[in-house]
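ERR on first pass: missing label on line 2. Operator R.T. fixed the label and resubmitted. Corrected input:
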Amino acid sequence: MPIKSLLCASAVLAVAGSTAFAETEIQWWHAMGGTNGERVNKIAEDFNATQDDYKVVPVYKGNYTETMTAAIAAFRANEHPQIVQVFEVGTATMMAAKGAIYPVEKLMNDAGEPFDGDAFLPAVVSYYETPEGELLSMPFNSSSPVLWYNKDALDAAGAEVPTTWDEVKTASRKLVDNGMKCGVSFGWQSWVMIENFSAWHNLPTGTKENGFAGFDTELTFNNAQVAARLDDIASMGQDGLFVYGGRRGDSLPMFTNGECGMWMNSSAYYGSISSQAQFEFGQAMLPLDTSIADAPQNSIIGGATLWVLEGHDEAEYKGTAKFLTYLSSPEVQSWWHQETGYVPITTAAYELSKSQGFYDSNPGTDTAIKQLSLNTPTANSRGLRYGNFVQIRDVINEELEALWGGEKTAQEALDAAVERGNDLLRRFERTANPS
Amino acid sequence: MLKRVHFPTSALPYLLVAPQILITLVFFIWPASQAMYQSFLIEDAFGLGTEFVWFENFEILWSDRHYLASFQRTAVFSLLVAGLSMGVALLLAGFAQRVVRGAMFYRTLLIWPYAVAPVLAGALWVFMFNPTLGIFPYFLEFAGITWNHYLNGTQAMVLVILAAAWKQVAYNFLFYLAAMQSIPNSVIEAAAIDGAGPARRFWTIIFPLISPTTFFLLVINMVYAFFETFGIIHAVTQGGPGTSTTILVYKVFNDGFVGLDLGGSAAQSVVLMVLVIAMTVVQFRFVERKVAY
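pass 2 clean. output:
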């Protein structure tokens, strides 16, 4: 059979193949690597198997920052996907891009998909709503920082699971005296030790309701309470009770290797920890600073949501809406939650996990949800909405590293971070389309 | 009556240089002019709201302490990377040239690291120096040195310099070796007969004779340290701790691709471009005079 006819045959087959299944393709760009990436693929495959009209194609684009950058670059070149996963700190940037985003609530209504905003956990959706209460993006993987602890190490050292910062210190001391390399560490420090620490103790991180009420917000997290706590942690570092281990999840091995007995980071590390830790571990609520508040307020979310981008045709949006309905169904959501440690985004998914007995057999896995829904969120604990926040978090990382390295006091570091952060906020205010 | 010689004009020379001109236009002049234009704008990430601001992006840069500090950091970093990688390469080439048995084997091994992608080179060093898992911090512990490049800016700088220099040694080695092999043996043998030892022969004969190569490598290595080390820094330290390893090119990336501040990032890349052009001019004007071809 000559090459030419082979080519012809394959061309005919290719054309036939594409016409036989005239599915509308929906691109979904995401930042879920490793095992979570496989889970994302499974969600897409399962959805594709439920119907023949639409095909969701998940594409892994690197970490959160890289995914967002890729989507924006693609938008400028008019080659953007229908759905992109953006982490919570990108919210203000996405919101300001009026002509680029298709608000999810509007999409669902336009496509005639059933949508009930009240079905979602308030602590999750409030982060992504306009002041008028319209939901802009579809919550997908939300998490909250928790206190992970090595139960075997605590028991061996005769220490209790801490609930306050004083107890964290006591437990750390016992762990180190019992031969551990360090007592406590944390990752994503801006999120855990400034954003969530402030919400947990009902302190604002900035003016204008943490940025929710306008782009003319200014940062205020350089207050005496936060500074005192960070100074105390830095002195724990001098005593070897606290060890800093990097900006994101870099310090995870310190916990799973049994070097540090306690680790404060996202509840979404559940999957990684349960596969890596050779000891009995647990998660507890974030510790309370009793010098600031008598009781905790509520924690705020991290993780990401799915944004729909403008500039596609109606059929594609219809499929997108159908997929989002599927994605937020209780079955998919509770599966995702139980597999990953992200919180279920709807009350129904939470109830389903409860009735399946998941929390009875895995105690502590509902810590993040309990933290998020501890109290009705206040203006200080709803979340935050600052422009250029990706850069501001970098600034916070830089200044806190100067603190852990002993080059600055907490107050100096926080003042510098606020000053540099405010410059970035003013720049954002200029470029944002005033709403 | 003077007779003029006329050569028929031909399109051939123009055709011959055309591909190079085209490549320069498409891959340098065009993007560079785009960057110039972008540096006069302040716009949001999506390009929906654009404001033409003349030199404001540059003004913001010059009033930013952190930007000015990264100049000094870049200078230290580049000089050390270039010096270290050229020095080590010269030493290795000097030895490799004298090897008779198994010469190919040694050379292949020494050239190998050049094939490693910058990010991978970074990842290798990250593993070796990881404060928790790495082999080097384990050994340094015996010497009483606590290694934690997540916290110690100097250590982080040492690490990226080592990683960047290591990767470039192979390239420099290749050029030095070729240069040494092109020196006529008779010259070196004559010096040996006159009683010059290996070290003396190296410094008085070989080193001056390979000075054109040294000069060429100096230009190349400076450009390498300025631009191509980005991947290594990204993989090893992400510019941290604090800003201790944020060199100019990393800041361009970080402000542009992470911070989505395209105007500020473009302004920085224009500054970087001017800087490297100036540096190359200086090298050709002043350093080249000391070179014997």
